[in-house]
Structures are given as C-alpha cells and as structure tokens.
Amino acid sequence: MSALCRLGLDASLTLGNRKQMDIAVEGSGQPPITLDVKGIYNKGPWLLTGVDSPARDHFLVLVSFEGAREPSRVPTSFVVPAPKLEQFLRPVPQWGANHYDIAYSRVKGSPYLEAWHLIAESVTANA
Q1: Which terminus of the chain is more solvent-facing, meaning fewer CB atoms within 10 Å of its CB: N or C?
Q2: Which domain holds residue 113?
Q3: pLDDT in tens, 20-66
Q4: Nearest to 46 by CA among 34, 62, 69, 61
C-alpha cells in the first residue's frame, strides 16, 4: 500500500472480502485494478491456490520479507501482471488440483522486481 500511495494512486484494502483480491486501485470512472498480495518470510516459495484465467487488470504482488527482523530492511517485491504469471507457476499435485508454487529463484531475474510502475501505467491506460 505504501508503494502505491507514493505513486499517487488511490488504493484500498479489501479486507479479505473478495477471493484473490487484497487491494483495489481506483481509476477515474473505470473498473479498479486489482492486486493479490502473497508474502513469505525468506526466499520462497509462494503458495497459490485457485489460479483463475488471467485478467488484464489484475496483478500478483509477491513480497519477500527477507531480513524482516531488522526494522530498517525493506521487503523485496515482484509485481507480476496476471497474464504473465503462468511462466512462474509450478503445479504442486500432492496438494490437489489447482495448487501451485512460485519459487523465488524463478522470479528473481525477472523484469517484475519492484515493478510498481506497471500498476500506475495500467491505471493510466484505463482512464
């Protein structure tokens, strides 16, 4: 939320009322951009259940709280547009159908590291 605020975006927590939607970012008169936020303490994997078909206006924000016991450390974030998510998913069949993980090693070299600008660009494109 703080990164979105610094970009001047109007973001609201959904407080768990909607599945796979933790934050809504409002544009001017357009449907909101939605974000699903997943956090881990170190370097993965992030666990996902129920990955639906990718929506153009949806992002998955993967947050790693590596070194979180040090208050001065900032978490690492990957802002992945939903249509680009599939390349990072690995099925976890022992947990049942539609269960996936995303290893830190699969996203660390991606262009989505701290890519908060993608959300701002999406809000602007929808305006």
Answers
A1: C
A2: 2-126
A3: 789 999 877 778 899 999 999 877 799 988 776 667 789 999 999 88
A4: 62
